[in-house]
Amino acid sequence: MLSTRSKQLFFQFSSQIKRLQSTLIIAEHNNEALLPITQNALTAAKKLGGEVTVLVAGTKCGPAVEAVSKSSGLARVLVAESDAFKGFTAESLTPLVLASQKQFNFTHIIAGASAFGKALLPRVAAKLDVSPVSDVIGIKSADTFIRTVYAGNAIQTLTATDPVKVLTIRGTSFEADKLEGGSASAEKLSGEYKTDLTTFISQELSKSDRPELTSAKAVVSGGRGMKSGDNFKLLYALADKLNAAVGASRAAVDAGFVPNDLQVGQTGKIVAPDLYIAVGISGAIQHLAGMKDSKTIVAINKDPEAPIFQVSDYGLVADLFKAVPELTEKL
Ligand SMILES: Cc1cc2nc3c(=O)[nH]c(=O)nc-3n(C[C@H](O)[C@H](O)[C@H](O)COP(=O)(O)OP(=O)(O)OC[C@H]3O[C@@H](n4cnc5c(N)ncnc54)[C@H](O)[C@@H]3O)c2cc1C
């Protein structure tokens, strides 16, 4: 049994540890706006407790800095602007993250488990000689995290013993921070962050008036059963009625029906909308890994034995070429 004095010392000590704890979030943005996953990362960081600092690195990233500064309770927003950050390559950003780490000695470094975070943080972790913890879906304490393994088929709880915890968090598992109530000060970082490892030349971004796949409230996805890219127009018509994003299985992407940024699954995007409609998709585990946390799942498939029906809330055994136009018309 601890004496009263020991208990007092223990609580004093643990609150000091908490105060020492500090997290760096690497903001994901396009200079003009924050990407939604940064809001999820903010929620995760605040759950850890301690000080939270956000790093915004870009070319002319003023609007993104302004947006994130509104998040409540931030210690500071670090800002680094340089042409070297064009394209947000992991090679150019890593020296900057390491320099910030050296200056502030963060206990945690967080980014979203997006293509951006998945490229950057393993590199940062390697340079710090620590193990990255990827795809975190829950935070139990400052050193104990819940993550998915085996394509989402098992859930692992692990305690990280490294002095710096480097985490990518799954956006769908943390609420979006509201970006209100705060007025954190922006601190400009100066330095030479050029890298000769890569040179950014150009990028072509697909433009769409539809909601973004990972943040849409409804998603209509098509699989190999769609038979051709042209037939996806049936899904676009349905998606228009629902203000939904359109996704696809890997088989549909591999067959060239749709571009690969539409792929949902283990090697595609992870989505968890309120409504997910899977059309002509069998429900392979690699596809389920990307959508099974959706609130309501609807499946349309002509095969009553298709595994997708095991995870769906509503299943329609029907020919999609008949069912989808009928559904669109009735909405
Ligand atoms: C390492 C690895 C990673 C992978 N990552 C992913 C991933 O990220 N995402 C992903 O999706 N897959 C992924 N896959 C592939 C996955 O294993 C499946 O091959 C793929 O998901 C199958 O796609 P599908 O359901 O569209 O095609 P199929 O399995 O061929 O299913 C087509 C379905 O359409 C139905 N159908 C056909 N015609 C009609 C019709 N007229 N009306 C109604 N229904 C119809 C059929 O009954 C069938 O169920 C990965 C595989 C590996 C090995």
From TrEMBL:
Q: Where is the Electron transfer flavoprotein alpha/beta-subunit N-terminal domain?
A: 23-204
Q: Which GO terms describe its cellular component?
A: electron transfer flavoprotein complex; mitochondrial matrix
What GO MF annotations does this protein's record show?
electron transfer activity; flavin adenine dinucleotide binding
Please explain the role this protein plays, according to its UniProt record.
Answer: The electron transfer flavoprotein serves as a specific electron acceptor for several dehydrogenases, including five acyl-CoA dehydrogenases, glutaryl-CoA and sarcosine dehydrogenase. It transfers the electrons to the main mitochondrial respiratory chain via ETF-ubiquinone oxidoreductase (ETF dehydrogenase).
BP terms from Gene Ontology: fatty acid beta-oxidation using acyl-CoA dehydrogenase
How many and how are cofactors bound here? Binds 1 FAD per dimer.
Complex and partners: Heterodimer of an alpha and a beta subunit.
Where is the protein found, in the record's own terms? Mitochondrion matrix
What this protein needs as a cofactor is: FAD
Q: Family, per the entry?
A: Belongs to the ETF alpha-subunit/FixB family.
User: What is the species of this protein?
Assistant: Popillia japonica (Japanese beetle)
Residues reported to bind FAD: 224, 249-250, 263-267, 280-287, 301
Q: Identify this protein by name.
A: Electron transfer flavoprotein subunit alpha
Task: Tell me where it mainly resides.
Answer: mitochondrion
Q: Which UniProt keywords apply?
A: Electron transport, FAD, Flavoprotein, Mitochondrion, Transport
Query: Would the keyword Mitochondrion turn up in this protein's UniProt record?
Result: yes
Report if keyword Cytoplasm is assigned. no
